[in-house]
Amino acid sequence: MTDPPVPYRVLDTRPETADTVTFRLAPAGRALPPFAPGQFAMLYAFGVGEAPVSVAGILPDSGLMHTVRAVGAVSRALHRLRSGDVVGVRGPFGTGWDLPLAAGDDLLVVAGGIGLAPLRPLVQAVLAAPQGYGRLNVLVGARSPDDLLYREELGGWALPYCGVTVDRAGAGWPGRVGLVTALLDQARFSPAETTAFICGPEVMIRATARELLHRGVLPQRILISLERNMHCATGHCGHCQLGPLLLCRDGPVVGYDRAEHLLTVREL
Amino acid sequence: MPSATTTRDPAPPACVLDRQGLDALVQALRARGRTVIGPTHRGGAIVLEELRSAAELPYGWGVELDGGHYRVVRREDEAAFAHSAGPQSWKNYLLPERVRQWTADRAPDGELTVRQERHPPASYAFLGVRPCDLRAIAIQDRVLLGGWHRDDAYQARRNGAFLIAVECTEPGATCFCVSMGTGPAAGPGYDIALTEVLDETGHRFLARAGTAEGAEVLAGLPQRDADAATRTAAAEAVESAAGRMGRSMPPVDLHTLMASSLEAERWDEVASRCLTCGNCTMACPTCFCTTTEDITDLTGDHAERWSRWESCYDLDFSHLPGGPVRQSGRSRYRQWLTHKLGTWWDQFGSSGCVGCGRCIVWCPVAIDITEEAHALHQEQLARRAAGEGTP
Amino acid sequence: MMGHGGLFAALPEGRREALLAIAREVKYPVGSRIFEEGGRADRFWVVNTGTVALDLHVPGRRAAVIDTVGPGELLGWSWLFPPHHWHLGAQATGEVGAWEFGADSVRALCARDPELDHALLMYVSETIGKRLRSARTRLLDLYGPAGSGQLR
């Protein structure tokens, strides 16, 4: 382990869905080096522990935005944060989304559930410099309309295509029901000149990547963000191994050309 | 990295120490403020402990080793280093089981102060580092210091460690350093290398310095120039050890073998024996995995972060919100072996195995890493012969 | 993209025209019912614009939407298999424009053209497969509390 957590102050918190909260942080003193879209931070809840949380927003003056789902002791402690509270932050860690790789390409951003969080700063980066890329498509799958992240923001993105589909529709949902891959028919992209960015549950990642390969997207242009158990984030604790990959160091963003054969092995 | 068994300088500057010279070495290191750690006979094992004098070395003790079997035996001679790897390794000192990493305090106004743990510069001298363990230290150096992030606690201990390698002249029945290219001759990385010679001419140690500090320490000891007879006897003893390895690995690229064996049937067989106790990972001199512990005091305003050894055999090791990724014993044994012999190359540019044999000795059900590698190799040959295609 | 998949792309050379010759262009206003569960399945559609929701009636509840069919996709496969009754209901969730095909006419066309018959059957099977995979995957509730699969 190298550097201990740096104190960051909570600016505000916003409930995103029933089990998800978004908060914005600003350095309480010294700031960490800048984060890139796709990288993650280790967030330290005092006395409880740390959790890896991808950066959902890169704010001015070294501010960070995170969206956290309550799944364990640490994330539940993070849910209790209120404006003015202080958390510890380490980072930035891991590989980010390789945007230079996508220069000039059509872009497919495919998100499942809370997988939209690490993709949000990527979309923002592309929207800030649209001339460098082809058509930007955002495809979002969620459990239900109530589980959709960044609802208002999604509607405000000016994109060639932005589609949302849900597993289960509640009353009055006018949109699509089904898998996120079903939205690919409406997306506007030329497969051979497309870079895809996928984040979500591994089953969803595999299904989406397979469909994209079938349509002619190159495996090395399919970038996926993977999850394993991360403790140290510095490549020293061994927990986040996926075969040859140490995901805190070689990931979380990995090319499908490197990951495909690893994702087919059970319990790897 | 040069092979330990070849490309040796035919006549490096060397001297000869006798037993008094070895005593003087320990005293000289202690006088320099170093804590000398070395092997000693205690509790029915050759363990690593602080040595106050060379007299505490296990003169006249050897070991009898096999799968799941370790016995200390009395030797007919008075050799000090005629034992192979014991239950511990140098990682117990360089990467201790528990290390505090930081402390944090929360003020009444919520202000958070985090203090990095200051690691006082340790000053160890390791006496009796076997060539396999010398390589193991180099491998942990690569893992903990050679990447983007450095482990400061390890660095502090490692920087201050003076390494006295002792070449292997009495390999155990579970040794296979020749297969792994790590011994029985000492590779690079030592400050001083010794080779024990015990014959009709007497009990003595051929000594070479590997660093300036090593040369300086040697120069201050009672010694004589290395004679041809001692040089020859030392070389022959190491040469002979190379031919008496108790175990061997299959003569194939183990990295490739592991990568192509992920779905082998052998994993089911070994899983039927493996207790997933993790002994092999605790005994292994290169296993480096740790977990973190966060603790608070009773007021709740003071917290500490500790790192602690963990084993990939623990169910929680691969924990994800939905449950552990590696639930079966099969997958956890496979993780350990394929990492050790295979994916370690992808991650850190070398094998993670040095052929010390500790995992074989300290496995309660005598699972043998070399036997498993041979079995995977045989299964692959059989698969190929059956025309299932190349991996 | 209509280019990938889509019924017409799946047909052999020249059959698109033959099939379109027996098609009828139809429009459904928002909220209109296209077919009902249990009704006679004697036709199918290829949606051009808008989205169709496939639903199942549950007493005391609003109809539960199981799946949706969008532009370029096939609406209806029950016409192909006995007993030729719809398993679900269909409702236009937006203004829907589609090609409508009568099952009898298509069957007559296929009887004279085994290649078309085969291509059509393959396409319908692929569509059914996709919807089966979709339903199975959603059974896992991957986005649910225990099914999370990415950084917390």
Task: Give the CA-based shape of chain B.
Answer: globular
Structural class of chain C, please?
Answer: alpha+beta
Q: CATH-wise, what's the superfamily of chain C?
A: Jelly Rolls
Q: List the helices and strands of chain B in order.
A: EHEEEEHEEEHHEHEEHEHHHHEEEEHHH
The total number of structural domains of chain C is 1
- Give the N-to-C terminal Cα separation of chain C: 34 Å
How many runs of DSSP E, i.e. beta strands of chain B?
A: 16
Count of runs of 4 or more consecutive helical residues of chain B: 13
The major β-sheet of chain C equals: 4 strands, antiparallel
CATH class group of chain C: Mainly Beta
Report the CATH architecture of chain C: Sandwich
Order of helices and strands of chain C: HHEEEEEEEEHH
Query: Major β-sheet of chain B, in short?
Result: 8 strands, mixed
Radius of gyration of chain C from CA coordinates: 17 Å
Instruction: Report the portion of residues of chain C in β strands.
Output: 25-35%
Protein name (chain A): FAD/NAD(P)-binding protein
Pfam families (chain A): DHODB_Fe-S_bind, NAD_binding_1
Domain FAD-binding FR-type (chain A): 3-99
InterPro entries (chain A): Cyt_c3_hydrogenase_gsu, Dihydroorotate_DH_Fe-S-bd, FAD-bd_FR_type, Flavoprot_Pyr_Nucl_cyt_Rdtase, FNR_nucleotide-bd, OxRdtase_FAD/NAD-bd, PyrK_electron_transfer, Riboflavin_synthase-like_b-brl
Describe this structure in words.
- The complex is a heterotrimer of chains A (268), B (391) and C (152).
- Chain A is α/β, with parallel strands linked by helices and 268 residues long.
- In chain A, 19% of the residues lie in helices and 32% in strands.
- Chain A is built from 6 helices and 16 strands.
- Chain A has helices spanning 73-79, 116-128, 151-156, 202-215, 247-250, 256-263, and strands at residues 6-17, 20-27, 40-45, 49-54, 57-58, 64-69, 86-93, 106-112, 136-142, 161-166, 176-177, 194-199, 222-225, 241-242, 245-246, 253-255.
- In chain A, the strands form 3 sheets. In chain A, strands 4-3-7-1-2-6-5 form a 7-stranded antiparallel beta sheet. A 7-stranded mixed beta sheet of chain A has the order 11-10-9-8-12-13-16, sandwiched between helices.
- In chain A, a hairpin with a 2-residue loop joins strand 1 and strand 2 (20-27).
- The mean pLDDT of chain A is 94.
- Chain B contains 13 helices and 16 strands.
- Chain B has helices at residues 19-31, 91-94, 131-145, 152-159, 177-180, 212-219, 228-242, 254-259, 266-271, 279-283, 329-348, 358-361, 369-385, and strands at residues 14-18, 35-42, 45-50, 61-66, 69-74, 98-106, 112-116, 124-129, 162-166, 192-199, 202-209, 224-225, 290-296, 302-309, 319-320, 323-324.
- Chain B starts with 13 loop residues before the first strand and ends in a 6-residue tail after the last helix.
- Chain C is of the alpha+beta class and 152 residues long.
- Chain C has 4 helices and 8 strands.
- In chain C, a hairpin with a 7-residue loop joins strand 4 and strand 5.
- Chain C is globular, with a radius of gyration of 17 Å.
- Classes of the chains: A alpha/beta (268), B alpha+beta (391), C alpha+beta (152).
- Chains in contact: A-B, A-C, B-C.
- The interface between A and B is large, with 42 and 55 residues.
